[in-house]
Design brief:
rod-shaped, 5 helices, two-stranded antiparallel ribbon, binds zinc ion
């Protein structure tokens, strides 16, 4: 029965006529000729491979699974991934700086540990520096009173 088509799985069926069994490499040429015999055919051509012909309803299902569409999506993703990777790295490290003060679990004690560090004045006379330190001590005492 399968004498004419010994390796059926290697052949494709013409979408216009299921008795047209062809080699995949000849399908494109066949479809152009065969389409003339079926001018009333409502078959829709797949945008990703012009040998994919389906009815409008079947085309919706086909487009979800079309191997050529999946192939093109894959290569698009690889392209954009390679392009955006260096940019993404920069954005991520910038985000980390912004995220830290706005941590959702705000702990006033932990905040004080960093805020209560005595600020080191630059380029001031020793007397002024002493005065500055005295002011800082008072400032820190005021902070610790407020937070405790
Ligand atoms: Zn045909
Ligand atoms: Zn397709």
């Amino acid at each position: 029965m399968s004498k004419d088509v010994p390796h059926f799985q290697n052949y494709v069926m013409c979408p216009y006529n299921k008795s047209h069994i062809l080699l995949p490499s000849r399908l494109a040429a066949h479809l152009i000729r065969c389409a003339r015999n079926y001018p009333s055919s409502k078959l829709v051509r797949c945008a990703f491979n012009n040998t994919h012909l389906y009815s409008a309803d079947d085309m919706k299902t086909h487009l979800e699974n079309c191997p050529d569409r999946l192939k093109s999506i894959k290569s698009e993703q690889m392209d954009s991934f390679a392009e955006s990777e260096p940019k993404k790295f920069v954005v991520e490290s910038a985000e980390n700086w912004d995220d830290e003060p706005a941590a959702p679990t705000y702990n006033p004690l932990a905040h004080c540990n960093t805020a209560c560090v005595i600020r080191n004045p630059q380029g001031v006379a020793p007397a002024e520096r002493r005065e500055f330190r005295e002011k800082e001590r008072k400032r820190l005492m005021a902070i610790s009173k407020k937070t405790s």
